[in-house]
Amino acid sequence: MTTLIKTVAPKEVVYPSGDGKPVAETYSHFIAIITTLEVLKQYLFGQQATVLANQFLYYIQGNPRAKVAPDVMVIFNVEPGGRDNYKTWEEREVPRVIFEMTSASTKNVDQEFKKRLYAQLGVEEYWLFDPRGEWLEERLKGYRLVGQDYQLMRETRSEVLGLRLEVQEQLISFYREDTGEKLLMPQDLATALDETQQQLEVERQRAANLESLLAQYRDRFGNLPE
């Protein structure tokens, strides 16, 4: 007599990519997140790195509740490009830099829970930026991981990124430490592109005028001497 043993396949763990909540608390916070994302994406283009914004970071395999959604996180030694979410055990890397666009309503979570969690995960730099100046007088504050705890940075410079940070109205401006050059923001890139196109049009018109003059010369005097 054969005994049949019924087996139940292990339930697949689902790691959602969204929770239906707004990306940011206010328009100012949204613009600060998107601008920081795009500036750092351009800066790290071509490197083995990715920059993600407001996407779930899962840090315990098998536990989809163990998650957090940093406003902007920078991860090195991974494939470039976007993800629906980020799982540390699959990528085998944790973010090295995290930015939180903080406010009066999120300051406790940002200063307590997230700060402790990011330190435990080994995030090297943790930045708080208050676009509206609601509770941070200096608007921008950075922490560097020393041992297992964060220490406040005296200067707003990222050793990991090689950038100096400054507050510009309700945004963060980034400057290369090696050259002092300011990284272009999306609106700056659009302006630069427009200026380049205008310059190309001027050069095209100049070349056309020169060709017209050469044609007139050939009509009167023949081909130019070799």
Describe the model.
By secondary structure, the protein is of the alpha+beta class. The protein is built from four helices and twelve strands. The strands form three sheets. Strands 1-4-6-7-8-9 form a six-stranded mixed β-sheet, sandwiched between helices. Strands 3-2-5 form a three-stranded mixed β-sheet. It is elongated. The relative contact order is 0.11.
Q: Could you outline the blueprint of secondary structure elements for this entry?
A:
Elements: H1 27-43, E1 49-53, E2 57-58, E3 67-68, E4 72-76, E5 86-87, H2 88-91, E6 97-101, H3 107-121, E7 125-129, E8 140-146, E9 149-152, E10 157-158, E11 163-168, E12 171-176, H4 186-221
Parallel strand pairs: 2-5, 6-7
Antiparallel strand pairs: 1-4, 2-3, 4-6, 7-8, 8-9, 10-11, 11-12
Which CATH first-tier class of the largest domain would you pick?
Answer: Alpha Beta
- Domain module count: 2
> Taking Cα atoms only, what radius of gyration do you get, to the nearest Å?
26 Å
**Low confidence ranges:** none
Which structural category fits the helices and strands?
alpha+beta
Percent of residues in beta strands: 15-25%
CATH architecture annotation of the largest domain: Alpha-Beta Complex
Briefly, what is this?
With 226 residues, this protein is α+β, with helices and mostly antiparallel strands.
Task: Output the keywords.
alpha+beta, 2 domains, 226 residues, tt1808, chain A, six-stranded mixed β-sheet, 4 helices
